[in-house]
Amino acid sequence: MRKPVYLDCHATTPLDPRALEAMLPFFAENFGNAASRSHAFGWAAEKAVDRARRQVAELAGAAPREIVFTSGATESVNLAIKGAVEAHRSKGSRVVTMATEHKAVLDTVGRLRESGTEIAALPPGPDGLLDLARLREAIRPDTVLVSVMAANNEIGVIQPVREIGAICREKGVLFHCDAAQAFGKVALDVNRDNIDLMSLSAHKMYGPKGVGALYVRRRNPRVLLRAQMDGGGHEFGMRSGTLNVPGIVGFGEACAICEMSAEAARVGKLRDRLQAALESELDGTRVNGSMEHRLPGNLNMSFSGVDAEALLMALPGIALSTGSACSSAAVEPSHVLRALGIGERAARASVRFGLGRFNTEDEIDYAAASVIQAVRKLRSLAPA
Ligand SMILES: *Cc1c(COP(=O)(O)O)cnc(C)c1O
Fold first, then answer.
1. What's the CA gap between 117 and 96, in Å, rounded?
2. pLDDT tens, position by position, 95-108
């Protein structure tokens, strides 16, 4: 068994060797610029990017021309939200989102708020799910965009994306979905799910870091965006900058090789095994967020009386996280858990397990045994 055992797949996933294999030639012999139209080096790069664009589009149920490559989901979210608000100033300036969104969304709408955009960040129910009646009420005539994630990066809760999209369609507002955690794990189809803009990240689905995409709907309706990066007019004028060809090739391959339903069943079984082991051996555990509407690889659990940071320190053999890795430099407890109405103490006692494609039963059994032992030890040192 390789140690530490990696159980932090919401922060990033390991690169699938097949994606790496596809990328390698594009670092060296095929080094061309995909925008070079006058020679074979450029044509080879362009051909590889076109193929990757089809592979990403196919997994999203989109047309290839609707895929704009970016540096990752953070950039895609910025382009989607700022780009849509700036392109629709004449309609109004109100964005509806949720309090449990990733910082990429919350900090982006925070920036827009500084320049006068009205932001409604709806609280979730105690299970982490959006209340659709509440969403309906929050959409007003001056609302330009609704931004709700598909799956949460801390608690793994999956939102009713199709229903949210249908409400947006009915009300005539754009729907942006941050699908960084969900894409390649649960089925998403931009047409069936009524999605107008969708942010994707390769490194959350066994592709490389530093590459992602924004899906931008071209018909029914055609979505207008104001580019945030000006320059050579790459990516249909929506995102200038020389393309990261090896990264894009790896992202395409990661989409082409994913076997969602088989993997969901396998990873879900491992997660259930971990949960059952922890719950049978320890009391004072609680799962945060809906168990029913949840990514198969996610378990977010509180261990009462235990400080999660201390627990992680006591577990050098497992790579784990408390709260969101993106904000773990800050000392505040997770904004997601707090939005669920979980008290500060319970939030600080919460650990996020992120299982993935390469985890084995042996690793899960080892992790469960280590956590059980460490929780017992910490509780005996400082009885609640
Ligand atoms: C990781 C993540 C992002 C940011 O993606 P990057 O590609 O790392 O910029 C945005 N939203 C969610 C839900 C994420 O999990």
1. 11
2. 999 999 999 999 99
Please confirm, yes or no, whether 9 is among the known catalytic residues: no
Q: What token pair was written down for 146?
A: 């609704």
Helices and strands (DSSP H and E) totals, the chain: 12, 12
Ligand 1 close to Cβ of residue 73 (< 6 A): yes
Note the pLDDT tens digit of each residue in 330-342: 568 899 999 999 9
CB atoms within 10 A of CB 277: 17
Find residue 97's DSSP bridge partners.
Answer: 121
A 10 A CB-CB count for 166 gives 15
For residue 87, give the H/E element and its range.
Answer: helix 73-87
Domains of the chain, each with CATH number or no CATH: 5-13+259-381 (3.90.1150.10), 17-256 (3.40.640.10)
As a whole number of angstroms, the distance between CA 82 and CA 76 comes to 10
Q: How far is the CA of 379 from the centre of ligand 1 (A)?
A: 34
Which residue among 81, 102, 199 is best mutated to probe the pocket of ligand 1, counting the most ligand atoms within 8 A of its Cβ? 102
